[in-house]
Prior knowledge:
The longest helix has 7 residues, at 454-460. Strand 7 and strand 8 (95-101) form a beta hairpin. The chain is built from two helices and 52 strands. The radius of gyration is 38 Å and the shape is extended. It starts with 21 loop residues before the first strand and ends in a 12-residue tail after the last helix. With 706 residues, the chain is mostly beta strands.
Amino acid sequence: MAYEKWVVGGRRLAVGCCVAAVVAGASGTAHAAGNLPPRQPLVQDLQTGTKPCATGADTAYVAESPRLSAVVYDPDGTQVSAEFEVGWTDTAGAEQHRTYTTTAKASGSPFSVQLPSDIPSDTVVSWRVRANDGKATSPWSSEGDSGSLCAFVYDDVNPEKATITSPEYPRPEDVFWVDGVGLYGHFTMDSPSDDVVAYTYGFIGGPYGTVRAEQPGGAVTIPYLPLRRGVQMLTVHAIDRAGRSSGQSTYDFNVKEGHAPVSQWKLADAAGATSAVAETGTDARAGSGVTFAGAAPEGTGLTATAHLDGGDQAFLTPDAPAVNTGGTFAVGAWVRPERTDRDMAVASQGANGSSGLALGLRAGDAHPVWSFTVGGQEISGGVPETGEWAHVLGLYDAETGLAQLYVNGHETGTKTRAAPAATTDAFRIGQGPGVSAWQGDIGDVRAYDRVVVPTEAAELGYRTPRLLGHWSLETASDGVSPEQGGGAPLKLGSGATIHRGPDGSCIPDIDPDCPDVPYALVGDGHLQLDGETAYAATEQPVVDTRGSFTIGAVVRLADSEPAHPMTVLSQAGEHTDTFKVRYEPSQHAWQLVMPVADEEGAAETVVSQIEAADGGEGQGHRLAVVYDDATDTIKLYLDGYTNAAATAAFPNGLHSFGPLQVGRGHTGDGWGEYLHGDVDEVQAYAGALRDRDIIGLGHGTDPCLC
């Protein structure tokens, strides 16, 4: 309704005991002589609830009678009040209006009125405001070229629940298990209510979000990528223009494991073979520069790989495309380069001389990098090392238009937008356009027609650690404590003893003559060290500190305030310890110390976890250190957990020549930092244990690395 039809009742304004002369201003607004009228309220200073002043197609819809607010000003700086007028046309066609006046406040203050609950629903209600300084009034906010009415509709009805449908992931009553991890589904949400403008949604474990309809009452469709198998559920609420929510709609569906690669060649064929048998897809013809029965990366399950000599005949091909580069695809392999000083191809697939995909190694300007090129866009990262195995995988997600690169199961580089064309040339292993052929080993080449999700990429690039030694320190014979699997034992030095817990032959609380024997840290016994000369050691190095390793122990300090640093585990290089785990009393912290060079006085990388000294009480702490050569990181774990302060970058492990030491480390003048306390459950692995495996260390059994 137009405000021009509203009749605004006159008002008498008291001005104390004096009679003020009244004159007409240029705007036609009456005001007292010598008094400037308040300014016209600005539309941008008006709000309907939390929504800006608007009318027409932008009219605000509200879920309850709103609070109207405005900021008004008086040029004289006197106090002002705000007069709000509200109007609508009722169901009988009669015009209705109400006026609300606030108390006076300082100029520039926010003013508001809460409308009563009897404001009609489903009706366009308009409002405007003006300022009053007690002597004069401003123009209405709706007047003039810069003015505008504000309007709202009070909606008191919730929208109806949404229906949910999906062509890729039907409900279990239609299809019980559906492909699958790494395959997008699309879910359409549609409410019968014609005023729904958005839908909130959530899947078990995420993602969660809100999606807006293109027009009120319109349906919306969202993509969803399953990241794990199992029962899944989508919940949805429809949201109308007023912000009202419908009841919850649910949609159950069951997701299968991700399906197998469309092409896979383990390249574990017998020596002398001229082609590679395909696990899936087509056998791959081998060039004369390919030989089989090469070494395989430890901990992967592979038994052999192929060696490519880097020449013109260093390739394998099924003589057909392996993936559709016009859609989603992924390509990965285990590789070991013999050189990193030139660009080399791991795999490629092109058309008419152009590359749809190319996975390989690029020499780089500063250092070599792994590289994945899609549709002319390159993602690079990681550092290839001559003679070192790595798993590389390139992924292009057609749904998002993004390409990404994984190295050893970890995403590296930056996701990059690309638009590859569908390629028609044959897939080639070891060759690609514009680069040299691969020189080195390749194994387990896989090509997928779906997204390889992060957990799958991590599994593909994971090498199961190998147990090198587990010393439970239950017993010692002739000064030697055995390794559980019959491997190299720990020899006890002077002052080191094995403490045995109670044997159960008597109970101190019942038999007064029964000695009170403390329990062992874990199991029936532990190693006791006197802090002066005591230690235990192997005869040879246990972990190869140049590559990934994990080592842990259970430790209890005898002192509550140790007088000096004390080392619990170390293994030496030629001039210094390649690593040591010690307690530093000045910082009340356990530390992992790794020097950057095998030199006396070399700089050290130190990570730590704060923990008070035990003072001989309690069951000690489970310490573990991990060096992950694949990610160039070191971590210190305390009782199964690590944190940012206990993690650091460490590019190159040092060669260790010395035996594993328990209870001492090298200092400037020889052996020192002797541990005063107890040690139990020393375990060492070749390879980096994952967080979930570390939690199992120190409990008397070897964790399940699965």
